[in-house]
Design goal:
about 300 residues, alpha/beta, Nitrilase/N-carbamoyl-D-aminoacid amidohydrolase, six-stranded mixed beta sheet, hydrolase activity, acting on carbon-nitrogen (but not peptide) bonds, in linear amides, N-carbamyl-D-amino acid amidohydrolase, Aliph_Amidase/BUP
Length: about 300
Amino acid sequence: MTRIVNAAAAQMGPISRSETRKDTVRRLIALMREAKARGSDLVVFTELALTTFFPRWVIEDEAELDSFYEKEMPGPETQPLFDEAKRLEIGFYLGYAELAEEGGRKRRFNTSILVDRSGRIVGKYRKVHLPGHKEPQPGRKHQHLEKRYFEPGDLGFGVWRAFDGVMGMCICNDRRWPETYRVMGLQGVEMVMLGYNTPYDHTGHDDIDSLTQFHNHLSMQAGAYQNSTWVIGTAKCGTEEGSKMVGQSVIVAPSGEIVAMACTIEDEIITARCDLDMGKRYRETIFDFARHREPDAYRLIVERKGAVPPPQ
């Protein structure tokens, strides 16, 4: 029996620093309703979908910093999103800043959750590959201080059985690292959801930054193809507080082909009919890990006399 997930990517335009949670959740609900009206079972929101990208600033006041984080999920301001999802019978992926009290201390993570059609949280992920810096860098118009405001995720790259398939999550910079997809691929992932807030000047090198859009799609297409999985990449884009951010949210098939792409830098819904069994055909042929993948060969290369081990 064919397993279809009608999926939507809910791209968001800029969120200003002064925009309230209530206003932002209203925008998310409007996008959710549009996705449902277009027949979607699942809508993928972006990274840090509830606030502006606050790691672009040095924030010294702890109370001000805490205001960008969610202490519970759902909380009073986000509950309407869960209520609407349950009413519409649509699932969603949501990225947000998480403030957790664990081990007697505050812990801060760049987090995403997967919510099923009943409004129940079925999966949680914390971003592993944190880009940027811990301290402000001289000469930069906009800072990128994720290492200052978040810990690396401690939940690994899990998968969850939901929407009649095997679902995975990652966030933004994770998409550039092949091990992100491979760890989930080894668990049979069939759809990877990710949100991103990516500025055009993220490296500070013009030759690299000029290829940001190309590299954005390249990493997701390669991850999809090499691991026989659908990938849904959702951007927060446009000019947010003076920072220009990448758009072109996409839905990528297990073939590596882009089957839907946003064409604005504003709030926009794109959709695709995702056949989860399409990935199965790739896993049974080109990327049959059990038949063709040779992990022992990698170890042998390192163990050979004179071989140079990979950098730690």
